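PT: before anyone asks, these are the final sequences, not the draft ones from last week. 420 residues across everything. Please model them as a single complex and drop the result in this thread when it's through.
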Amino acid sequence: MTSDNQSSKVYIEILKQLREMISVDKLKSGDKIPSERELSERLNVGRSSVREALRALELLGLIETRRGEGTYIKDFHGNQLIKLLSTFILQEEKAKQDVIETKHFIEMDCLRLLLQKGNFNYEDFKSWVEKDKFSDDEFFYRMIEKADNHLLLRIWVILKDFNHSLFIEKSENKKKDYHNLIRAIEANDMEKTLTAYWKLRKCRFSNDRN
Amino acid sequence: MTSDNQSSKVYIEILKQLREMISVDKLKSGDKIPSERELSERLNVGRSSVREALRALELLGLIETRRGEGTYIKDFHGNQLIKLLSTFILQEEKAKQDVIETKHFIEMDCLRLLLQKGNFNYEDFKSWVEKDKFSDDEFFYRMIEKADNHLLLRIWVILKDFNHSLFIEKSENKKKDYHNLIRAIEANDMEKTLTAYWKLRKCRFSNDRN
DNA sequence: GACCACCCGTGGTCTGACCACTTTTTTAGT
DNA sequence: ACTAAAAAAGTGGTCAGACCACGGGTGGTC
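LR: through. Structure below.
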C-alpha cells in the first residue's frame, strides 16, 4: 500500500482499493474477485488485513466466499445491515411484538403498493395457490416480490426469519382465504383487500383500518 | 470455541458470543469490551479470528477501537457503513427509489399506528413545533417515537441516514403543514392525516405519487 | 506537588504454517 | 486412446508468534 499510512487503517484502504477495482473492472454480481493471497501481494499488505476487509464485506452481504473456490461479488440491493442491527438490538420483550406488528405493516404496505401499481396478471398466481401446498411465508414472499420494492422485500424476509426464531407456530390457512385476497387485489379494492388480509391474520386488531 | 463448527465460521461464532456477552453483562454505549487477546483466550480462538469479527463490527459502526486503549461499544445510529454502502452499492436508480418509497411507507405506518393507539397528548408536541426551528427528520423522529414501535423507529433511522447519503437536500417545510398533520392525528381522522402527510411530502416528490 | 522517562497493555500489521475443500492436472490401468 | 484414480495446485479458514505504534499508568526526580 502506498505509504498513505497515518490515520487510515489498512483494511479500510483495502476496501477502497477493492471498490476501485470493482469499478474499473466493471465487476458484477457473481463475478469472482482475486484470491486473498493475490490481493495481499498486489496491494503489498498482509493476508490477514485483506481478510479483515473481506470479512467485513461478507458480513455486510456484499460478497460471498466459498472455501476452496474463491470469493464472489454478491447481489447488493438491500442491506443486510438491518438484520444485524436487529439481532443485536432486539433482545427486549416488547421487541417481539414490534416484530409481528412491523411485519404486518410491511405486508399491508406491499398490498397497497400492488393496488397502486395495478394491472398485474394474477392468473399464474391463482393457479399456483390452487395446485400446490404452500406456507404463508411462501405466499407472501411471492406477493411482496410482485410489489417490486426490493428493500421492502429484504426487510420482510428478515422479519419473517425473526418470527420463526421467536415462535415456532406455523399456522396453515385455508386456500380460500388466499384466493379471496388475490381476488380483492385484482378488483383493485383497498377495502376488500385489507379485510381479506386481516381475515388471514384473523386477530387482535380488527378495528384499525379505514 | 466448542468445536461446533461446520458451516459456521469462527468469526460468526465470535459475533454471537459477543452479542451474548454484551447482553449478559448489560454493556452499553461507551462501555469497554475485553481486549482482543483476552477474547482470543477466553473463546479459544486465534486473535486474527477475533479481529475479523471486530473489524466487521467496526465497519458497521457498532464498536469503536482506539489504538493503545481498547475497544468500546458505540452508540448505533451509525453512519460509517452507510457512507460506504452508498458509494459502494446504490448506484442503481431503482434502489434509491426503493429507499424513498420505503421510508414513506414506514412513516405512514407510524401515523396509522398513532391513530390506532389514539389518545395521546400532543400539546407539548405542538408547542415544540411552534417554538423551535426543526428539520423534517427531527419532526418525524419524535412522531415515530410516539408510535412506540422500536423496530420501526430503527428501520426509519437507517432509511433516513441512507437518504442523507444519497441526497444532500434538506428542504424546510412550513410549520403550518406540520401543525395540520398533528391536528389531523389529534382528530383521529385517517383521511385527513394521510392527506396532510402528502401535503408535506408533495413538494419534492409530487410526480412519482398517485 | 509538578514533571518526565519508562514500562506495560492495547490495537495494527505481517509472516508462515497448517487444515479442509475444490478444481485441475497428472498418472496409471484397461 | 480412453477413462478412472491419484496427485498437485489453488483457495478460503484458522492459528501462533512476532513486531510496531500509541496511550496510560507508575515511579522516580526535581
